[in-house]
Amino acid sequence: MTLLAEQFRLVDEATPLELRGTVSELRGLTLRVEDLAAPIGTLTAIHPRSQTARPVLAEIIGFERSTALAMPLDDAAGIRAGDEAVALQHRPTVRVGRALLGRVIDALGRPLDGRGPVDVSATWPLRRRPDQAMTRPRIEHPLATGVRAVDAMTPLGRGQRIGVFAPPGLGKSTLLGTMARHTAADVSVIALVGERGREVKDYVESVLGPEGLARSVVVVATGDEPPPLRVRAAEAATSIAEWFRADGSDVLLIMDSVTRYCQALRQIGLAAGEPPATKGFPPSVFATLPKLLERSGRTQSGSITGIYSVLIEGDELDDPVSEACRGILDGHLLLSRKLAERGHYPPSTSSSPSAASPSTSSPKSTEVARREVIKLLASYEQVEDLLTIGRLRLGQQPRRRPRHQPQTQHRRPAPAGPQRVPGPRRLPPDPVPAPRPQPGHPAGTQRPPATRRTPQPAHPAMKD
Ligand SMILES: Nc1ncnc2c1ncn2[C@@H]1O[C@H](COP(=O)(O)OP(=O)(O)O)[C@@H](O)[C@H]1O
Ligand SMILES: [Mg+2]
Question: Where in the chain is the domain with CATH 2.40.10.170?
């Protein structure tokens, strides 16, 4: 059975009959092709009648009785009613092989780096079901990303999946590219989905650099490309990562960004006639997203550690895509605008504990150090305002009083002359009133008044 597995797969993927149809309408981004009974996802070539025009590829995204709804993967200019559509591949595949390393390709595997054809012949399904839950080994080994702030504070396990959540312009792409360049994984597969065209070259040459690129595969579909191509770029990168994992490698899969992938799915769903449900996203988006994200993870042969960037609008993770991603992924890393504005990179503020699984973060000293840093950061946050207004200097401890100390212990015998009293500093120097029992507190005890918590210069008459 295993000997013939490849042959069975080829038979399964083959289109038994050549299916043909006729273009009847193009409305917006949706092509209607009559009498084409091809399944969803089929790659189709539309042959314009003009002899000089090249065939236009399209993908079947839905159907109504015998009419297929398709979306062009290319510029639809030149297509006319009556043009012939021929189904090419009803189970889409990606071409894979080690020759992909160091290459920049588009969603259909075509080279974008001007270095000639990519010499690969094996194929791998573009849309594969995630592995069954019980067949997956546990996450046991750490994976260094090469970014110390991440490795120390959000240690990743080989096969884990995390989301990097941030508003635009805070350094997500730079952080993800740095990880791809310096990671301890064998291979990095990077999907740039919906990025600006001008950013891609800069990303490949500056962020990834020649040595990072040499062990990476970059799959690009920029924001101006048709939605099915952007969706395919995310899927093709995942498929390529799966092939390397099946080949025994530990892979770092980077997807920048999942939000743009979901936006492309939304455009496809709406074009196929789905109703918008959650903030304009049709239901199919949230059914398709877990199928993609669940494909990374660990298998018996290797692992795919997934890092997915998610765009957020403010500092809240309450948009539908963020909420869905948080539910699917193992953990998250949140980047803060405040830190980025101060030039603090990577501006990571919080990370979820599930991403920082102690079982993966070895050695033990790293975990101890991580807890210490969390404690220090929490203390800093408490006194940050006092430091800013100059009421506390670095190295000085904030003055605190125990909460339930008997009143008699605070009060000193009244010295001669004016008294310091709790409350606003401009009160007349009256004698201290006798303490009264407070409701809810045992008699004779009193919470220190709030104004006492901020350090105040002592009255000259009172010496500490
Ligand atoms: N590590 C870094 N060091 C210095 N500047 C950075 C760093 N990371 C990001 N930046 C700055 O932030 C800008 C946006 O970064 P980018 O990675 O494109 O953000 P995003 O992908 O979140 O939109 C960069 O052009 C750069 O000026
Ligand atoms: Mg970016």
Answer: 13-91
Question: What are the residue ranges of CATH 3.40.50.12240 in the chain?
Answer: 94-362
Q: What is the pLDDT of residues 76-114, one digit of tens each?
A: 888 889 999 999 888 889 999 999 999 999 999 999 988
| Amino acid type, 230 | R
Q: Residue 370 is encoded by which pair of tokens?
A: 């991580």
What spacing in Å lies between the alpha carbon of 306 and ligand 1's midpoint? 21
Task: Answer yes or no: are the C-beta atoms of 230 and 197 closer than 8 Å.
Answer: no
Question: For ligand 1, atom 10, which residue shows the shortest CA distance?
Answer: 171
Please give the distance, rounded to the nearest whole angstrom, from the Cα atom of residue 341 to the centre of ligand 1: 11
pTM: 0.79
Query: Ligand 1, atom 3: nearest CA belongs to which residue?
Result: 345
Question: For the domain bounded by 13-91, which CATH number is listed?
Answer: 2.40.10.170
Token pair in block for residue 452: 């006492």
User: Any idea what the Cα angle at residue 121 is, between residues 119 and 124, rounded to 5°?
Assistant: 125
Tell me the per-residue pLDDT of 363-394, one tens digit each, with 9 for 90 and over.
677 778 878 888 888 888 788 778 778 777 77
- Identify the three-state secondary structure at position 340: helix
Q: Which atom of ligand 1 is nearest to the CA of 335?
A: 22
Residue 25 CA, chain-centre distance (Å), reads: 38
How far apart CA 426 and CA 405 sit, in angstroms, is 26
- Residue 235, pLDDT > 90, answer yes
164 Cβ contact list (under 8 Å, min separation 6): 172, 175, 176, 307, 308, 309, 310, 332, 333, 335
Least confident range of 268-282, 361-375, 405-419: 405-419
DSSP 280: T
CATH 3.40.630.10 fits domain 94-362: no
The SS3 of residue 9 is helix
CA of 166 to the centre of ligand 2 (A): 10
